[in-house]
Task: structure prediction
Amino acid sequence: MDAILLQILNGLDKGGAYALIALGLTIIFGTLGVVNFAHGALFMMGAFCAVSIKALFTLEKVVLDPTKLTAWGTPMEIRTPYIESWFGDVGVWMIDYSVPLSILLAIPVMLFIGVAMERGLIRYFYKRPHAEQILVTFGLAIVIQELVKSQFGANPIPQPAPDTAKGMLDFGVMIGFDAGNVVYPAWRLIYFLFSTLVIAGVFAFLQFTTFGMVVRAGMADRETVGLLGIDIDRKFTIVFGLAAVVAGLAGVMYTPILSPDYHMGMDFLVLSFVVVVVGGMGSLGGAVVAGFLLGILQSLASMEEVKQILPGIDQIIIYLIAVVVLLARPRGLMGRKGMMEG
Amino acid sequence: MANFTKVSRRSLLRGAAAATTALAAPTIFTSKAWAAGYTNEPKGSTVTLGFNVPQTGAYADEGADELRAYQLAVEHINGEGDGGMLNTFSSKALTGAGVNGKKVVFVTGDTQTKSDAARASAKRMIEKDGAVMITGGSSSGVAIAVQGLCQDAGVIFMAGLTHSNDTTGKDKRANGFRHFFNTEMTGAALAPVLKNNFGTERNAYHLTADYTWGWSQEGSIKKYTEQLGWNTAAAVRTPLGAGDFSQYITPVLNSGADTLVLNHYGRDMVNSLTQAVQFGLRDKQVNGKDFAIVVPLYSRLMAQGAGENVKGIFGSTNWHWSLQDEGSKAFVKSFGQKYGFPPSQAAHTTYCQALLYADAAQRAGTFRPSGVGKSLEGFKFDGLGNGPTEYRAEDHQCFKDVLVVKGKENPSSKFDVLEVVEVTPRAQVEYPASLLGGELGPYNDGA
Result:
């Protein structure tokens, strides 16, 4: 039971990332009708916002010490972060909390990137076939990936969680288990809570604001909304930026779990598309439910007890579920009629 | 007309064969390849070497370091720069005037850490650029694939960073040579250190990358730790590039295991180690013992990616820049002054391979693969950073001391992440050539 509960927790934090990426993908598809293969790159760029903030906070004052030499004979460098020498303990705290603080940078940066991407490239492909949209966005993802690699290198760059969130939480005690049976990393629980908050925020934004109402109306019938004199294109540009922000935030907070490298977006992209398809194309609720569901099933399938019965199931479970769901419900779990049909 | 119909099928075939031979004869006898007697015999004032390294993909940083080392080696062989390890190398055949009177030039290829891409770039360097030797790489799968291609093409392959037993075991080839150590040596070197630090009663849980190197590494560590008296609680295969290993790490928590062996390399190692530490394994106690994590193959470049998570974690490595022998000091100085940071083990092994090839060709007086190969077989040398070393004739594997390292508790810089805890003598890691199987077969001079 403890083992199953631990795997469910694993699935929830992984599922949180899947759900956030899939949510953005669905928003873009539902509003603009664009199949965006560059969405994984947006997740990766969010993660590199955290890398950039950490790099900025740890910019160092370099003083050469001629009395000490490196192994290759040059004077030893004594390095002190500027922020530490300027702000003392506050500087140290800022470095320690660089990952959550990166959210402040990621929101405007990702919004700008999303809007620039939509205005600069994606909008020219609205009326083109999905195959062309996939090709151009996939090409864009590769370009972004290579740019990041040229700037940051190919190796993963560690981004530790703040010291206070590094330890383990006895989650089992909170739900009535014996102490020490279900202990789980604090940051992963924080990530799960963060992802549910962002998801709730996006739903609230679309449900309870005038802007959201227009966007939902546009998703249902773009032409009619246009006839009412509303500049739906401008609204949808902002929606693209919003989807980029959601993917970016997912990436920022995921960095202590997975050291970011240029390729991390691609790793999540394919899985997130499966999540969207299983959830139902264009269904926001479906994307969220499928994200968590597939995350949990992927974790449970990795248990040795399961693998002994079905060897290799952990590597194909997601795709197997997709096949079963599509056979039973061709529109996905919560898909709407008319979406991607005809 | 009547005569024509009497022509038999056999006489027609004979006639065709004779005509084909007559037509082809002028090309055969004037062909460069035939006249040279071996593939890409250099005729001019230069000899071309092919450096096949990952320039894109997950190991691009390691590949870039290999390329830096090759460029440095070429400079030193041609008499430029400070000479590096040529000054400490026990063989004095190379004088800084190139090899066999020819200046060394090079071409590069991108393996992308994919066997097909690596073979394609090696083929291009051999067929179009006239490379007489191919070297480099950061993966055993790639090394074995390129080694096979070089054998068929008739050029020497000097392997880069490849750690699987198979490269000089069941997949060894006469034209292939490896300076880097292997998983068998890692097991033999690590086991005594693990015994001294963690005792003989341990319950080990393996997480293993599901491909040739991972299986090889898992097999070696299991073999040597079980000889110590350790029990293997489980050996779980993980998909290559899994990213999030949490679903494989959580079963360790309540498994009763007190040791986790991570048979992972590259991104997988960085992620699995980071996440194992995140799940509290490094600070855990099981059955009154401190939980131990072991990373059998360390790379300083990768260890940097795992950050502070490597602290106190044991592993092995082929070479480390902090070594204080004259060869290592000369190489670190030369590399550090040119590039501003210390070389990685990948840079070291590839630099050595370039020098060893050049030296063998110089001593043989030819670039003919069989000549260079025989010159390398059984060659004993010193001064290249690993102490007295021998290129064993039976399997073309270098035998030398192996380093056992540990993640440093208080690093003085971002390069200073590992400390050498033991230099395991060569005698302790040596094994009979027949142990790993395979046949070298005959040399192929090509053409």
